[in-house]
Specification:
The complex is a heterodimer of chains A (203) and B (548).
Chain A lengths: L7 H18 L7 H25 L3 H18 L9 H20 L8 H15 L2 H16 L3 H12 L4 H8 L3 H24 L1
Helix pairs in contact in A: 1-2, 2-3, 2-4, 2-5, 3-4, 4-5, 6-9, 8-9
Chain B lengths: L2 H15 L5 H11 L3 H21 L10 H10 L4 H7 L3 H30 L3 E7 L15 E2 L4 E4 L3 E6 L4 E14 L2 E13 L7 E3 L3 E5 L2 E7 L5 E7 L2 E5 L7 E4 L3 E5 L7 E4 L11 H4 L16 E6 L4 E3 L5 E4 L13 E2 L8 E7 L2 E7 L4 E3 L2 E3 L2 E10 L10 E5 L5 E6 L4 E7 L7 E7 L7 E8 L4 E6 L2 E6 L7 E3 L2 E2 L10 E10 L5 H14 L10 E4 L7
Parallel strand pairs in B: 6-7
Antiparallel strand pairs in B: 1-2, 1-4, 3-5, 4-5, 5-6, 6-9, 7-8, 8-11, 9-10, 10-13, 11-12, 13-14, 15-33, 16-17, 17-18, 18-21, 19-20, 20-33, 21-32, 22-31, 23-28, 23-33, 24-25, 24-32, 25-26, 26-27, 27-34, 28-29, 29-30
Classes of the chains: A mainly alpha (203), B alpha+beta (548).
């Protein structure tokens, strides 16, 4: 089974291995090399947007990565069924959506997430966003500029949180500050960045 | 989604992103988002930020080679680096000093963090004044809820609003405007007009606009964004750096005082031109645009409750077409609070005439223009003095034109009718007889008239003087006391528009004596070159108390 490890080249290698195994078993439905390459190309191009869609439903990044990994395997299995004239991201997000619900039910973590009814509403909004390629790229570029506008202390907190993957507790301990202060500060920074990105996308 | 819900949604999403959301909080967030498209969009946009931050900032340290320069950057960011030391195999002899350096930088970083919390614990921005502003529950003054948080959008159609930022910059927004508070030293002007007055401690204050950003290097500038998104920056004092935000363009220009720059979507090159201070309303800077600060030349009695004094040669602010935006209240004696009169609607502004009579300016009303003072208290006893020259034949629809209206009820009014009668009185409603009503036929001369109307409900009498002569007295049983905006040149309902010039208006919160009224009238007549022989008024109505 192919595994997505965050690097498309690793994914290609795994896909090829599976292809060889399948070939050795002599099954009828073998994917040809061009189809595999096409999948890898399309998937590589779209994976960030699929990941973004999943993360919208499962905001904790590491859990979203787990869902993406499972989703990528399903996408690979179902690739022969994909109609080439359809939108790949839309199709992939549909599968990812089912995978999110399956994971939430299986892991019995749903209590820490939005309820399914609201998640479905969120998924609709997130899907609209995911299929807009330009907006995704523009949002990313805008965020880069918006980060530059933050105060130095705010950039430092972002660095600890996202670059060094520190938890709130760890940041609070390192800075000898209450956990709630770090929470509030991060929430404030995120909200400020959101407003900044919106403004920049408006122009 | 109201503001409270929005704040709560932000807090809960933050906890969700940090994997600390409890079951109860998840239920609460679900409830807040359920079937609310705006709230869901908020959720989608905030989680997008979380996503991009992870993607943009996460670097797999195991595989990266950290250079000495990068290490310095990391140290400067105050990150703890014990894991880095191991991963990057620094020579052990350096480890101890490295650890000390990292520890020291952490202390500094945390210190800065604590300091930033202290700064942030103060206000981000707050509303300090509103002038005839269609925002919130009151059009005038400082609102009850004056604090503006980051991200607060201010949008109104008419009026002025002064906003003070946490670092000290003051911004005057002029409707129609859409503005957003970004932080304690930055705002975003989406459309409309503003003036920024920036003290030294707030240097670096910046205004973002759709196509440009203006960064202040000291003192004062104006910014304007039209409906197409074109951006103008006008520098009044000091220097401003303008940075283009058009497409991938990041050009910068430094503008000095009196310079302006326009960046538009249609024109490839930005246009430089002369700054136009008259295009911006600035209530904090009236004196800068006032005429010569000459002596009022009128001797006023002390401690008689002078509360408003408008004089056409002083403290005026006109727009680029010479129309009056603001007529400033002259501070004199016990008149310490400036209750300026305003007209922010371009189409309703009276014209300022620089040299109307005896070399003195006038404010010219055309029947549809008027001015409105900031709210001020007028008491049981009132005296209004006015120098004016009406054109009653031009009054719209042969109706009376009002010089002043207290915008009650009770409403004290002074008006001139189309057949040249002058009337004073206090009304509780439009159809009721006026209390203290006095009416007189005015001389038909091509000169201004000086009138004084004294009304006292405490002594139950009113008196009217025209060009220094008593022309009528009446009873005054109704109290005129009210805290209100006073309309000049029109009634509040946009009718009874006055046509003609007003040179000067004084309002006292007391009943001036006959001697005082005559004395001030004489001074005003001398000031405006009005001789006694011109005045031949005749009392038409009014009940004169016998003892007087």
């Amino acid at each position: 089974m192919p595994r997505f490890l965050g690097n498309p080249s690793i994914f290609v290698r795994d896909v090829m291995e599976e292809e060889r195994q399948v070939d050795a078993l002599g099954r009828d439905k073998l994917m040809d090399t061009s189809s595999t390459e096409e999948f890898v190309r399309v998937y590589s191009k779209s994976q960030h947007r699929i990941m973004r869609f999943i993360q919208c439903l499962v905001p904790k990044y590491s859990e979203a990565e787990d869902v993406l990994q499972e989703t990528s395997a399903i996408l690979w299995r179902k690739w022969p069924e994909f109609q080439r004239d359809k939108d790949f991201v839309k199709w992939a997000c549909g599968i990812a959506r089912l995978e999110v619900f399956r994971m939430l039910r299986q892991n019995k973590k749903s209590g820490q997430y939005l309820n399914e009814d609201v998640l479905n509403q969120v998924a609709e909004a997130a899907l609209s966003e995911a299929v807009e390629t330009d907006r995704f790229a523009a949002g990313e570029a805008a965020l880069k500029n918006c980060i530059q506008e933050l105060a130095q202390t705010e950039k430092r907190v972002l660095t600890l949180r996202y670059q060094y993957d520190k938890t709130i507790v760890e940041i609070a301990e390192e800075c000898n500050r209450p956990k709630s202060s770090i929470h509030d500060l991060l929430a404030k920074i995120r909200a400020r960045l959101m407003r900044c990105v919106r403004r920049r996308l408006e122009t | 989604m109201n503001r409270a819900d929005e704040s709560r949604i932000h807090a809960l999403i933050a906890r969700l992103c940090d994997a600390e959301l409890t079951e109860a909080e998840a239920e609460e967030l679900s409830r807040l988002l359920n079937h609310d498209p705006q709230a869901i969009q908020e959720y989608v946009d905030l989680t997008a930020i979380e996503f991009h931050l992870h993607r943009k900032m996460w670097v797999p340290l195991q595989t990266s080679v950290v250079s000495e320069h990068q290490l310095q950057q990391i140290l400067s960011m105050g990150a703890r680096s014990d894991s880095l030391v191991q991963r990057n195999s620094f020579p052990s002899r350096h480890r101890k000093s490295l650890f000390v350096a990292v520890a020291a930088s952490l202390v500094i970083a945390c210190g800065l963090l604590v300091q930033s919390y202290r700064v942030d614990s103060e206000f981000v921005a707050r509303i300090t004044d509103q002038i005839d502003c269609s925002w919130g529950e009151s059009r005038w003054g400082k609102p009850r809820l004056d604090v503006l948080q980051e991200g607060r959008v201010i949008e109104f159609e008419l009026g002025l609003m002064s906003v003070e930022f946490g670092k000290g910059a003051e911004v005057v927004l002029e409707g129609p405007v859409r503005f957003e508070v970004i932080d304690n030293n930055r705002g975003y002007l989406r459309s409309g007009k503003l003036t920024a007055n920036v003290p030294r401690q707030a240097t670096g204050f910046s205004i973002e606009m759709p196509l440009a950003e203006a960064i202040d290097l000291g003192t004062s500038f104006g910014a304007y964004v039209n409906s197409q998104g074109d951006c103008e920056t006008h520098v009044f004092e000091g220097k401003v750096v303008v940075q283009s935000r058009r497409g991938g363009d990041s050009q910068q220009w430094q503008l000095g005082a009196t310079q302006a720059l326009r960046i538009s979507k249609q024109e490839l090159d930005p246009q430089q031109f002369a700054a136009q201070p008259a295009a911006f309303s600035n209530p904090t800077n009236l004196s800068a645009v006032a005429q010569n600060n000459v002596s009022p030349e009128v001797s006023l009695p002390a401690n008689r409750g002078l509360t408003l004094w408008l004089e056409a040669s002083q403290r005026i602010q006109v727009d680029s077409a010479g129309r009056l935006t603001c007529w400033g209240d002259i501070s004199h004696g016990d008149n310490t609070v400036a209750d300026n009169a305003w007209q922010l609607d371009v189409n309703s502004r009276p014209q300022w005439i620089p040299n109307e009579i005896a070399g003195r300016p006038a404010v010219r009303f055309n029947g549809s223009s008027c001015l409105v003072t900031s709210p001020l208290a007028s008491g049981e006893d009132i005296t209004v003095m006015c120098v004016f020259h009406g054109q009653p034949q031009d009054f719209p629809n042969r109706r009376a034109g009002q010089l002043i209206n207290f915008n009650g009820p009770p409403s004290l009014i002074l008006e001139q009718s189309w057949d040249n009668q002058f009337l004073g009185g206090v009304g509780l409603d439009p159809v009721q007889n006026l209390s203290g009503r006095l009416e007189v036929s005015l001389p038909s001369e091509e000169r201004p008239i000086v009138c004084a109307y004294a009304y006292s409900s405490t002594t139950n009498r009113s008196a009217l003087y025209v060009n220094g002569e008593l022309v009528g007295k009446s009873l005054a049983p109704v109290s005129p006391a009210i805290f209100s905006t006073k309309f000049i040149g029109q009634a509040s309902g946009q009718n009874h528009g006055f046509v003609g010039d007003i040179h000067e208006i004084m309002l006292f919160n007391s009943e001036l004596s006959a001697e005082e009224c005559i004395h001030i009238s004489s001074d005003l007549m001398a000031k405006y070159g009005i001789t006694q022989k011109d005045s031949e008024p005749r009392v038409l109505s009014g009940l004169v108390p016998e003892e007087e």
